[in-house]
UniProtKB/TrEMBL annotation:
<dbReference type="InterPro" id="IPR007325">
    <property type="entry name" value="KFase/CYL"/>
</dbReference>
<dbReference type="InterPro" id="IPR037175">
    <property type="entry name" value="KFase_sf"/>
</dbReference>
<protein>
    <submittedName>
        <fullName>Cyclase family protein</fullName>
    </submittedName>
</protein>
<dbReference type="Pfam" id="PF04199">
    <property type="entry name" value="Cyclase"/>
</dbReference>
């Protein structure tokens, strides 16, 4: 019997058996966001996963775990040439999850322009840190107790004109291998209900079920079926109610040395299991680990592609806009099989 043991869970020790995992009747989806993580325990986990002082360029954080050799290895995963986009459509319609709709309007129409050729022009603009735009969170985005990653004082390095530390322009682009952890496959459900927490043992179970192993430098993508649910049942305000990772996942992901975390929500389970901290995964990933996040990815086509390609590991390309002093960027990451 093959065993997969997680890093110590602060609430219990557990062993996940591959044979049991593959029997869906023995492995059920979690049903709530708990158990609660007290503030003092959260502080211990923060210190456990913290990587301050690790990277040559703290502004780029965990992206530096991807080496030229990592890129070559990622390229070796390209076999069929299938390319899958993971970005949501540009959303200009106000709704429960889109309080600040993106802008798109025409600034010039070629019918009024001479001589040839005529030219059509448009404008786009967006307040992208929210629930309706696929985007990347750079290391200047999240402060905890007034501190950014590496202990930089947020108010000293982020001002009304932008970020002098941890900006998206410091990240550059990322080409690496990625793993899709599709929890709808693990639990044999169309989607995880909002408020459902994914735990460390679930990550191990997903690895066993999907035939993957998260390695150093990997990007990890979490599919909960968020946007399938939205399309079939309607949009809801996911600011305080969404499926996502429980705090107990982060020591395991820290141990694996991943370069990027993303999901079809914003990685955090909501309501938060930690009283007083609305986004504990954001804090642990960005502020403690120097780990950029991808929020609001549309992973439905990627889930289909992985199933059809019979693999959940692929090359992943992330190229944020080069915005000096920006706290992040709208994004359209590509999976290449």
């Amino acid at each position: 019997m093959t065993e997969f043991r997680a890093v110590p869970n602060f609430l219990k020790e557990y062993t996940v058996c591959a044979e049991d995992i593959r029997a869906s009747s023995l492995y059920r989806a979690p049903t709530n966001n708990g158990p609660a993580v007290p503030q003092d325990r959260f502080e211990e986990i923060f210190e456990q996963v913290k990587t301050w002082g690790t990277y040559t360029d703290p502004s780029a954080g965990a992206w530096q775990s991807v080496t030229p050799a990592s890129v070559v290895e990622a390229a070796s995963l390209v076999r069929s040439g299938r390319v899958v986009t993971t970005a949501l459509p540009w959303n200009t319609v106000s709704g429960p999850s889109n309080a600040n709709p993106a802008l798109h309007y025409m600034t010039d129409l070629g019918v009024r322009e001479a001589p040839e050729p005529s030219c059509n022009k448009d404008f786009i603009g967006v307040d992208y840190h929210g629930k309706a735009v696929s985007h990347l969170d750079a290391l200047s985005h999240i402060a905890y107790k007034g501190l950014l990653y590496e202990g930089r004082i947020s108010r000293d390095v982020v001002t009304a004109t932008g970020a002098d530390f941890g900006s998206v322009s410091a990240l550059g682009s990322l080409v690496t291998s990625a793993v899709l952890l599709d929890f709808t496959v693990l639990f044999d459900v169309p989607w995880l209900e909002p408020g459902t927490a994914i735990h460390a043992e679930d990550i191990l179970a997903a690895e066993a079920r999907l035939g993957v192993h998260i390695a150093q430098g990997d990007a990890v993508l979490i599919r909960t079926g968020h946007f399938r649910r939205a399309r079939e049942l309607g949009i809801w305000d996911s600011s305080d109610l969404s499926a996502g990772l429980h705090v107990d996942c982060m020591p395991l992901l820290a141990e694996r040395g991943i370069s990027l975390l993303g999901g079809d929500g914003d990685s955090d389970v909501r309501p938060s299991p930690t009283p007083g901290i609305h986004s504990p995964i954001h804090v642990l990933a960005i502020t403690a680990m120097g780990l950029p996040l991808l929020d609001n990815l549309d992973l439905e086509d990627l889930g289909t592609a992985c199933a059809e390609e019979h693999r959940y590991r692929f090359m992943f390309v992330v190229a944020p806009l080069n915005i000096p002093r920006g706290t992040g960027s709208p994004i359209n990451p590509l999976a290449v099989f």
